[in-house]
Amino acid sequence: MAAEEVRAGGPLSDLVRARKDELGLTLRDLEERCTLPPASPGGPAKSLWGRSTLSLLLNGGQIKPPNAQRIAALAAGLELSEDEVREAAGRQFFGVDTLWTPDRKVRAFVRDFAALSPEDQEKVFALMEEHRRVHAPPEH
Q1: Are 66 and 116 members of one domain?
Q2: Do 76 and 14 share a domain, yes or no?
Q3: Is 12 in the same domain as 37?
Q4: Residues 89, 100: one domain?
Q5: How far apart are CA 13 and CA 68, in angstroms?
Q6: 47 and 15 in one domain?
Q7: What is the model's pTM?
Q8: Helix (H) or strand (E) holding 108
Q9: Which tens digits make up the pLDDT trace of 44-102?
């Protein structure tokens, strides 16, 4: 799917909805929190998420995939890590699953991981573990 295409509902929508409710935010509150720092000292902060776009996202409407700046602004507004928001967006807009080794030192991005056979899923994890083992810093 091309980056210009749109996708309705999914993991990012679910994450934003749950976190917005958890924090007790209105759409206006969330819009105001999803800002970048001012371009110049004393300048106005700029919101990267308007209420209409947030509403579409929350209600399963179609929006364009967010870029890195919009991911960062949304993460700040929701008080979440950029990785968590980026992973949800990757799954919703591109069908990419993020996998981690148990120690969270190796991350892999796999398209439609759940569609792989159990054997192929095990191969992915084995490859990740081997990468972690080979690239681990030497123990002293």
Answers
A1: no
A2: yes
A3: yes
A4: no
A5: 17
A6: yes
A7: 0.77
A8: strand 107-111
A9: 777 899 999 999 999 988 899 999 999 999 999 999 999 999 999 999 999 999 999 98
What pLDDT is stored for residue 137 in this prediction? 74
Please give the Cα distance from 11 to 31 (Å, whole number).
19
Q: How far is CA 54 from the centre of its chain?
A: 15
Tokens 């980026």 identify what position? 86
Distance CA(79)–CA(69), nearest Å, equals 15
Residues 108 and 82 in one domain: no
Residue 139, domain extent: 95-140
Q: Which pLDDT band holds residue 43 (cuts at 50, 70, 90)?
A: confident
Token digits of residue 129 = 């573990």
- Counting the structural domains of the chain, the total is 2
The residue whose two tokens read 């439609």 is 112
Give 131's contacts (C-beta < 8 A, 6+ positions apart).
106
Q: Are residues 75 and 106 in the same domain?
A: no
- Please tell me whether residue 135 adopts helix, strand or coil conformation: helix
